[in-house]
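So, could you explain the following?
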Amino acid sequence: MNRVLTRAQLEQYKEEGFVIVQDVVEQATLLRMKEVLANLVEKSRNVTSHDDVFDLEPGHSATSPKVRRIKKPHVVDLVFNDFMKTPKFVAILQDLLGENVRLHGSKLNLKAPHFGSPVEWHQDWAFYPHSNDDILAAGVMLDDTTEENGAMYVIPGSHRGPTHDHHGADGHFCGAMDPDKCAVDFSHAVPCEGTAGSVSFHHVRAVHGSAQNTSQRSRGLLLYEFAAADAYPLMNAGNFDWQEFSSQIICGKDTITPRSVSVPIRMPLPPAIHQGSIYENQTAGKRYFGFVEQGGKRNANA
């Protein structure tokens, strides 16, 4: 297995729970991704509500299309499916997860200039606990990404801490941590910044979130979730599609022997009242980032 990441990068991922790798996506592929994305946003003019492809921003219309997420982009267009099997990208996944890797899912989150819904603080682990936590999310930066246009923030070292409560006051899962009760020092947050074509990799238990885009530049983040092949989901055991599950192996071999480790787990139950994407789930939780009002004042903790 050929190593791509340096010793320092591997150590950063181990200790801090994330690492950013520059120049992972070839320019031609990046341009094709952006072209496909622009065409999808154009098609969204004919969509009036969330569907199997589009998750829409509040205020979306035919004259002013606002898309906050493309669902399952690796299914929507081959460019997103083909990229995750490119040699350099696969080698990085194997550096971090081992030889045998499975795709868990994908999405493409958009933040339009001076808009773009925030994503409140959360851990991916809260949404899909597995038998072990050798799981990560890879964020492909489709645009130059900075704090100003809505970069994702990560709390270094939080992947080695507790699994925080992601339930609202009603006791139902809401996909967000209560910033007043979780005992996390958010001043330690680090923005995942990079040029277009860079990729961030963050551990499934790392606390992360992102604010609204306050700049004049768009921010597209193509997210893939990957797991070691021996990490088995703890939900939906009674409705398990083995054929589909097995088909998601990206590299290496499948196994029917799950590996179990002792990690803190909370189940996303009772299910969210507001079903759908994380944006819908989080409408029942307390806000940290909020939205920026006219005049530039941030309505935090709204």
Notes: Residues 291-302 have pLDDT under 50 and may be disordered. The domain at 7-299 is CATH 2.60.120.620 (Jelly Rolls).
